[in-house]
Amino acid sequence: MTSGGQRTLGSARPSVLRAGPQVALTVKERDRVTGELRALGYDLPPSQANFLWLPLGHDSAPFADHCHANGVIVRAFPGEGVRVTVGLPEENAAFLTPAATWQRQQG
């Protein structure tokens, strides 16, 4: 701490280090899910966050309904796209299943 009671970068570092493995897993999963979605034919922009954006336009709400019917919640922005939170590997796998079936149905 500084004399004014503010944290310095050095004093915050242990919490950043503790968050490291979770951040690393999120980045790894984000890259994996992005690659799998692109392999399925989805066109999505790069992400540096803990979520992915699928610019599905008018298909956003129906895609979200399809995911929900398959036990996966995504956030639709009707007419624009769908926001998908990157989670644990098994959660992401659960999302990729309806994403694949949706793409095949649109085929």
Largest sheet properties:
3 strands, antiparallel
* Rg, Cα atoms, Å: 18 Å
Strand order of the largest sheet: 1-3-2
Number of strands: 3
| Terminal Cα span | 59 Å
In N-to-C order, the SSE pattern is HEHEEH
Oligomer: single chain
Helix content: 55-70%
Q: If helices are DSSP runs of H or I spanning 4 or more residues, what is the number of helices?
A: 3
Unreliable segments of 5+ consecutive residues: 6-13
From the spread of the alpha carbons, the general shape counts as: globular
% residues in beta strands: 5-15%
Mean pLDDT: 87
Structural class: mainly alpha
Outline of the structure:
By secondary structure, the chain is mainly alpha-helical. The protein has helices at 9-40, 60-69, 89-106, and strands spanning 51-54, 75-77, 81-85.
Q: In words, what does this structure look like?
A:
The protein has helices spanning 9-40, 60-69, 89-106, and strands at 51-54, 75-77, 81-85. The chain is mostly helical and 107 residues long. Strands 1-3-2 form a 3-stranded antiparallel beta sheet, with helices on one face. Strand 2 (75-77) and strand 3 (81-85) form a beta hairpin. Helix 1 (9-40) packs parallel to helix 3. The longest helix is centred in the N-terminal third of the chain and has 32 residues, at 9-40.
